[in-house]
Design a protein that fits this description.
The complex is a heterotetramer, with two copies of chain A and two copies of chain B.
Chain A lengths: L1 E6 L5 H7 L7 E8 L3 E2 L2 E10 L1 H18 L4 E7 L1 E4 L3 E9 L2 H18 L2 E7 L4 E3 L7
Parallel strand pairs in A: 1-5
Antiparallel strand pairs in A: 2-7, 3-4, 4-6, 4-8, 5-7, 8-9
Helix pairs in contact in A: 2-3
Chain B lengths: L2 E5 L2 H7 L3 E5 L5 H12 L9 E4 L2 E3 L10 E5 L6
Parallel strand pairs in B: 1-5
Antiparallel strand pairs in B: 1-2, 3-4, 3-5
The chains are: A alpha+beta, B alpha+beta.
């Protein structure tokens, strides 16, 4: 089980989690990224995410393939939103089931770090003062 | 001259004033095409800070282009 | 926000998660422990958890207090089940919201490690072959 | 002799054949009471592999006991 989704509307994460329930898994780790109300000291009202979807999906799948190979895990799923997300909205969700907790934590962390490093998704922050800006990169794409 | 399908994301879309276009070019590599477009639209980012995708796969800047190729320049990503 | 629960029946983890949604949090990490179908090569049908509840709760709260002090996090909640849990059931749930992901991951990991190390909860495994055994300790209690 | 409230968890409950009892004892510390009970019930675990809680708080084995104290011996835990 290994699935990477780009979604242009809210996703039922309870349903994603259920796809990962496996009797051979004893540990399950999730990471969620939420739109935070401040960034670098500025008040944020929303974030707009744009993805180059075909490449984001293939690059996301590559990350999940790497994770299945490197860590002793049972099943994994990751989802990234696109579109306009107000503060508090879910921007990214990653769930990893594994026989033991160490692999679940490490694989989950690896996926979010790699998504931020390599998946062609960009965010534009909308500030409370009305300004709108493409966010300076985490990394060279 | 080959026609190339271009799509622009993030700040490149803003700077080009469009999301996509079909463009005839005499340039034969992805890197040279970026320089042509940079001159045309004033893209702020040098190629060295970006990557390029041809037909939805990452490619080197030396990638040669042919009729109908779909080219996307990838500014530094900021998802997550 | 800092809450440690011992529950003798299934808990709505969606509701627990909702108590942790905070506009100042950008990262959210959860860990779930599930009853796994094998342990040390033996086929498990269920696990029975027993807790010395008053001490488990105060020790659990101490762990969460430590976490709030050591890591830059916004809110945290942990829940541990007692009773008879068949394979696939949720035995433990931990959720941590933080401004940034690094603290969320580290705090979540710290909590599950410390629960296993110090909270007075014991498990008895029921095997498919009909045997029942108190599980050899993770650690001296 | 003080009466002590005892509760037994995990393998101690099985070995004692009960979950709880009230017991009069002439022993004056938690450690000595455990040795008395170990002799009575054949508890497998030595005190050195356990901890003790008096009135629902962890205490040293040298903790002195008084009438009505609630004592729980804590075998190695296995939650999570």
């Amino acid at each position: 089980m290994n699935r990477f989704l780009i979604a242009d509307r809210a996703v039922d994460i309870g349903a994603l989690r259920e796809t990962l329930l496996k009797p051979e898994a004893g540990g399950f780790c999730t990471f969620e990224g939420w739109v935070r109300q401040t960034n670098d000291g500025r008040l944020v009202s929303a974030i707009e995410y744009e993805a180059f979807a075909p490449l984001a999906i293939s690059e996301g799948r590559s990350i999940l393939d790497e994770v299945m190979e490197r860590f002793d895990i049972t099943a994994i799923c990751a989802m990234h939103r696109t579109g306009y997300l107000p503060v508090g909205d879910l921007a990214v969700w990653i769930g990893v089931a594994a026989p033991h907790r160490d692999a679940a934590f490490k694989a989950c962390r690896y996926v979010i770090d790699e998504i931020k490093r390599r998946v062609p998704i960009w965010k534009r922050e909308h500030y409370v003062d009305g300004q709108i800006e493409w966010v300076a990169c985490h990394h060279v794409g | 001259m080959p026609r190339i399908e271009l799509e622009y994301f993030a700040q490149l879309g803003e700077q080009a004033g469009r999301r996509a276009e079909t463009r005839e070019t005499s340039e034969t590599t992805a890197g040279a095409l970026y320089e042509e477009l940079r001159a045309a639209y004033g893209f702020a980012l040098p190629a060295g800070q970006m990557r390029v995708a041809v037909n939805a796969a990452f490619r080197p800047w030396t990638q040669s282009l042919k009729e109908g190729d779909h080219v996307v320049f990838i500014p530094p990503v900021s998802g997550g």
